[in-house]
Amino acid sequence: MSKRRSEAAVATPRNKKGKDELNPIPGNGINPSMCNGTGKEEIKDPSCDPENPVKITFQDVSAAAYKIKDGIHRSPCIKSRMSAMLDMDIYFKKEFLQFTGSFKERGARYALSQLPNDQKKIGVIAASAGNHALALSYHGQCLDIPVTVVMPLIAPMMKVQACRSYGANVIIQGNDISESKVYAQKMGKEKGYIYINGYDHPHILAGQGTMGLEIIEQVPDVDAVVIPVGGGGLIAGAALALKNLKPSVQIIGVESERCASFSEALKAGKPVRTDVSSTIADGLAVPTVGVNAFVTAKDLVDKMVIVKEEYIALAILRLVELEKAIVEGAGATGLAAILEGMLPELTGKKVVVALCGGNIDTTALGRVIERGLAADGRLIRFVITVSDRPGGIAELTKLLADMGVSIKDIFHERAWLKSDIFSVQVKCVVEARDKAHSEELEAALRKRYNQVAWLPKYF
Ligand SMILES: Cc1ncc(COP(=O)(O)O)c(C=O)c1O
After folding, report:
1. What spacing in Å lies between the alpha carbon of 127 and ligand 1's midpoint?
2. 401 vs 22: which has the higher pLDDT
3. Where do runs of H (alpha helix) occur along 233-378?
4. How far apart, in whole angstroms, are the C-alpha atoms of residue 291 and residue 288?
5. Ligand 1, residues 95, 96, 100, 102: which to mutate, most atoms within 8 A of Cβ?
6. pTM score, whole prediction
7. What is the pLDDT of residues 77-109, one digit of tens each?
8. What is 1-376's CATH topology?
9. Distance of CA 67 from the midpoint of ligand 1 (Å)
10. Which fold has domain 379-454?
C-alpha cells in the first residue's frame, strides 16, 4: 500500500471536467441562503442539490454491487435465537461485522471507486463523527485515494485514532457536525477535494443499496425488512433494491425519538430541519435528511416508527446477552422497535433486521448496558425506611439475600428524616433476575415495611 500524501501535496487545482454525471465536481459558490442552522454559510453541494434531487435507480445499485464486491464483506444474515421469544422469524443482517464496523463501507467504497482518475489523485473530504469517516478512511487507504475527514470536537477519540491509523488526514474542527461540514466544504473548495456526503451522495445511496440485494439473496422469502434511519441513505438504497426484486416486501424505517427527521420530512413532504438531542443512537442524529435520499425513499417506505431511548438500550443489552453481538445504538434501533411492541403486524412473519453498526465506546457500552438492565426491570432503585436500632439494616439485607437479590449500592441517611428518630432511610440499588422477580421483591418489601418508595427509571 503506498504512503498517503500529505495534505499540502494534494492541494492541486480543481479538475473542472467531472465526467461522471452522478458525481459532478462541486460548484464553487457559497450560497448565503443555504443556512445549516449554525448561522454559518454552507457551500452548495451539487451532488445534493435541493433544487435538483437525484432519484437513484436499481441499475445504480446493481452497478455498485458489481464494483464493490471485492472490497466489502457479504455480511451474514442468519436466523436469531430471539425468534421464539419475539414470535417471529427474525434474521439479523450483521453489518457490524464489516471491517470498520458498519455498512457505511458499501457507499464509501463505491463513491471512491467512481471518482474520475485525476480526482483519485487529488482526493476527497467528508465531515463525520463516526462510521462514514472510518469507512472512507479505510477504503481510501485500500484504493490509494487521499482522504481528509473533518470530525467535530465531540468525536470519540477511538474513532479519531482509527481514522488516523487508516492514513486519513484527520482535522478536528467544529462543535458539532454542522460546523465540521461547513469547514470541510470550505476546505474541499480550496484544495480541490470532492465533498462526499455520507448519507446523500448518489453513489453513497447506490452503495448502501447493495445491502438490500444481499438480503434478498440470503432470505428470499422475507416479508419485511427493518432499517434504522439517520440521513436516509441506507433506507433509500436498500428499499430501492428490495422493492425492485420483491415488490411485496414491507420496508420499515426506525428512528430515535430524539432525532425523528425522516418522519418529519414525510409529514412536510420535503426534508426539513428537525430538533435533535443527544441519543444513544448517535449515528442517527441527523437534523435534516438528505434530499436525494428522501426523494428516492419516500414512496418505498411502508412505515416509519420512532423508538424510545430505553428500548434502544434494551436492544443493545439483548444483543449482547442473547446474540453475543456488540451493536451500537444506531444499529440496534430496528430490534428496539420490535421490543417496544411497535410492529405487532410482523408476528409470525419472516423479518430481517439490519444491525448496521457496532462502533460503540467501551465506556458507553457499560453505561448503556446498565440502562438496559433498568429498562428490563433487572436493576431497581428503591428507598425504604427501616428501624435504626441494632439489626434494622441487617434485617433488610437478609430479606434481600433470602430472595436472591443482589445489592449493587446501599446508602443510608438520618438527618433529613421527618419520621420517628429511631428510623433510618435506606436507598438501595439492587439487581433482580427479571421483571417478575423485581415485582416479587416489591411485594415482599411492602408487606414488611410501611414506607417503600419504588423509584422511577431515569430516561
Ligand atoms: C450504525 C448506523 N446505522 C444506521 C445509520 C443510518 O444511516 P443513514 O444516515 O444512511 O440513514 C448510520 C448512519 O451513520 C449508522 O452509523
Report:
1. 14
2. 401
3. 233-245, 261-268, 291-297, 309-323, 329-339, 362-375
4. 9
5. 102
6. 0.86
7. 999 999 999 999 999 999 999 999 999 999 999
8. Rossmann fold (3.40.50)
9. 22
10. Alpha-Beta Plaits (3.30.70)
